[in-house]
Fold these 2 entries.
Entry 1:
Amino acid sequence: MNRITKPLLVQIGTVFGFMVIWEIIGESKLLFEGILPSIVEIVKAAWTQVATGFIFPHLLVTFYEASAGFVIASFLGVTVGILLGANPFLRNIFEPPILYFAATPKIILYPIFLMILGTKFESKMAMAAVSGFFPIVINTTIAAANINRIFIKVAKSVGASSLQTFTRVYLPSILLPIFTGMRLGIGVSLVGAILGELKVSNAGLGFIIVQAFNYFRIAEMYASILLTFLFAAIVNLVMTLVLARMRRFA
Amino acid sequence: MRSVAPILEIRNISKTYPGVAAVENGSLEVYSHEFVSIIGPSGCGKSTLLEIIAGLLPKTSGEVFIKGHAVNHTHSSIGIIFQQESIFPWRTTIENIEFGLQMQGVPKEERRRKADKMIELVGLHGFEHRYPGELSGGMKQRVAIARALVMEPEILLMDEPFGALDEQTRIILGEELLRIQQEIGQTILFVTHNINEAVQLSDRVVVMTARPGRIKATIDIDFERPRTSEIIASEKFGRLVGQIWLLLREESLKGFKLARQ
């Protein structure tokens, strides 16, 4: 047994053990009936959601909300981060409030978004944008503020123009921290969009979860949770792979 | 006096920061193919002097001439290498070496051809497409040397380039540097705090005083070229190191007291 297979076996064992305990508690009727439906039932419900195509429009809605928000978050986060990183005066003014606000739950802004942007796509996109913005702006600011001065000196010494120095030295040297910020950002953008859907919405993964809950269709609710979880895991995996490629030279 | 004009001439360079004089009246000439070292106690302003020559720092007064022409900012005929790691981690060896040429708008093919020559010169064959993360400290400095030399500078300024390396790597890289210098006839101005290194490499060693840095003495190192690191074992080597240390000792003690204040 080597170093890769051993943790994998423990992981599989843990999941299996969890499922067994789930089934035992569910069957024992120790909890109210229906709170823990059998795993077979959940998987069946999940399969139905996939096979009938029921899940896909909702998945797409969530995906669009999260990715549109994430694009806005990335653009604003990187731009503001570079400005703050390059300018100590601006950084002193704006970094503390950004750090404070980063630690507060962004859902408190949701009523405002609902009033301004309505209950459909736009308010969730705004939730995703404001959620993703903070990790990206914080990572970019720190990277831009701590850029290796020697790199800039090298560029100057071979007569690089300001534009060349920016695009060929400045940007590449902060690219990796920016990607790290974006990796964190896409996760919380997704959280932001789904949180918005759970509160007020008429489509999306969060919506169908809360809908199933309201009608006490518990197996369906778990099925949607399971599929949402898989979706988030895939997004995370893709970002990890992209980042691993970037890491090659860091 | 020599009849030929110096490659580099600096006249009465001074650098004052508010309340502190870093360099005072530095004057120096470096001739073609020469290897000159500047040695001094830490904090004496030797790196400051080098960055002024490179045009990376403004000077308070004085003048810098390259082949008789006054220069005031960075200049393509002046190359510089730093002690800290300076090669770009997002570029491969060959891409790092091509950097300066690329900034100057040199076409890709010519860039590659010149960079390939440098790869051979500094002995990085087989590592062209590696990223710096995969190279040792000594190899990274070879890349930095190649990146500066590919610009064909009239003079190469080196600011303690081997300072972060272990002693044995440092000696071997020094020997390599001399071979490269010999091969292309490079003029070099080298800053170090290491007396052995200064004697191993130089034709002349310029000793600086503690802050504010002034030039205290110039010692001729009359080992023949080409030379290898074997000269370290000679009696003359020990004598020269001793002579420079006697000049430096007083300054180092002063520098030590300054630092404690």
Entry 2:
Amino acid sequence: MNHWTFVITGYVIVFVGIAVYVAWVLVRGRSLTNEVPEERRRFLD
Amino acid sequence: MLRDAWLMASKDLRIEWATRVGMGQILPFGGLVLILFGLAISPDLAVAGSDGRSLLAQAAPGLFWITVLLASLLALGRSFAVESTDGNLDALKMAGLDPAGIFLGKSAAVAAQLLALQVILGIGAFVLYGPPLADLVLLSVIVILATLGISAAGTVYAALASGLTVRDTLVPLLVLPVVAPVLLAATKATEAAVYGPLDNGWSWAMLLGVFALLYAGVGMLAFGPIMEES
Amino acid sequence: MTSTSSKATYVVGWAALVALALSLLFALVLSPPEANMGDSVRLLYIHLPTIAVSYVGYGITFIGSVIYLRNRSAFWDLLAGAAAEIGVLFTAFVLITGAIWGKPTWGTYWEWDPRLTATTVMFIMYLGYLAIRRMDLPQEVRSRRAAVVGIVAIANLIIVRYSVQWWRGLHQGRTLGVDTQLDGLMLFSLFLSVVAFLLLGAWLLVHRFRVAWLERQVEDMRLARALSERRGEAGGATLGGAVS
């Protein structure tokens, strides 16, 4: 295995992991927003 | 505060004396772990370049301390299990006991139990694993300081996990990463006490002393917030 | 609004995306291989930034925990929790990239190096923090206990790091000091990556905080509903009717 195999594996794992987390947070954000009435949705509003 | 600590400690120790969980269950568990290590690591394996010293004897200090840590998890869990029946902790709070005192008392009680366990488990490790005799002064100091550190840190985290059924799985997860340095220092110190050089042993013992002081301090501070409306 | 996005997150998000794209370009293409480690140095362009994000995350958890214990504000409690979760995620990345980098460099995936060992213990400690936040207890109790852990964990971190270093110091072992020569371009690539990951971390933090905020609202609403049903049952008996 040359170095590039390791590098690419590492980058793929990290970026796929980030993408999965991002997707989870955004989807969860959307579904929770629907459950909560407008005035309680944000800390600052 | 010290009076409260004494009250807590004597209450816990009296419960222990009456129920004999420590001697009856935790000690045999510790002995079992020592034996299991012996089964997992063949006594015939020798360490290269050490005049045929067996791997088991070489690793004895570490194995002993792991056994102590595992036993301490049981002792710590038990320390708070006796409180959650009938909401004892709330009653203690309302009785106006100082949280720092409660912390000192409970961790002192756990420390006392652990020290008793370690005397017997120590003899067991010596017999089962066959390391040479250690410098007893250094060894006693190590054992006392390490135990104080483990009980102090462990009491804080066992309190955080208390009052629930998941306590049994949460306590190890919380306590072990925190006492890992104690394991490290105690093992190194004990290795030095048994195999030398003794100076190393004393410096590791000093580190153990620092841990014990730090965790005791943290515990006294942290128990205030922990005890509010626990 | 129908999601946790806002003008702020769009700005930070796009900045993060651009920065990440640029840093990928520099890390994988424009920067050279290192003299001793070759191309595996490119993993450091993730390894080091993710450690930075983790530390910032745990630092925010610490600050949030301290402030929460003083004024019991939900904002700081939820912020601490969100930051810890992101910290844990990125610490996982640190460990993974560290192991993958280690194989071509040291020959093994794991070395009992002080930093790696201490980082692993740190990872587990914060997993414990997250476990406390999910305990089946009243919310105030959960938050308070988590805050205590969030504060004490930092002290523990320092102790673990220091003691493992001392341990390795006495131990005759390989040092991490692989001779590294980072030239200007590599340092710039590293800097760019750190900036990119910090922006990403910030974006994730805002979104994750808002999700936590919404979860708390849902929990409060459920609690309020349960309480009023309970009162309704009590009052309904005298009024002669059921309250839905």
